[in-house]
Amino acid sequence: MSPEGCENDRATFRCSGLASRQGLSTGLKFVQLDIPGALHSGESTWLKCQYELGEDELYSVKWYKNNVEFFRYLPSDMPAGQNYELLGVYVDLPRSNATHVYLYKTDLNTEGTYGCEVSTEAPSFRTVKADKELRIYGKPKQNPSLIVRNHE
Question: Which residue intervals define the domain Ig-like in the entry (predicted)?
């Protein structure tokens, strides 16, 4: 059974949170991680991390590929969004924000497990994280051909 606000759509998916044990929390809740399951090499895509802060204040949103951070959003920083070079991850920084990261292209190195981690400020210090697999398919260099031979 998935935690409240988390769904499993036949891809690797994990959602965890540090929240009230009584279930009465009005703070941070993870709502949805929207990452395509598969793309063709060369396509662009949005990675979406949707959450509800409730009464909490946002501290940071961090994005990971295979557990290596490639983008972070800290509203207290100027600029709020920062990206870190990572093989196969092509972030369009001006189009990325607290809930969305835009990859302006993909290649075979883009494939992996992508995660979004959301943390709140004091006094709650809540954190939720979700991961999902992204597959990349290469296009053939030339169209397929069929050769038919007659055997006499």
Answer: 42-135
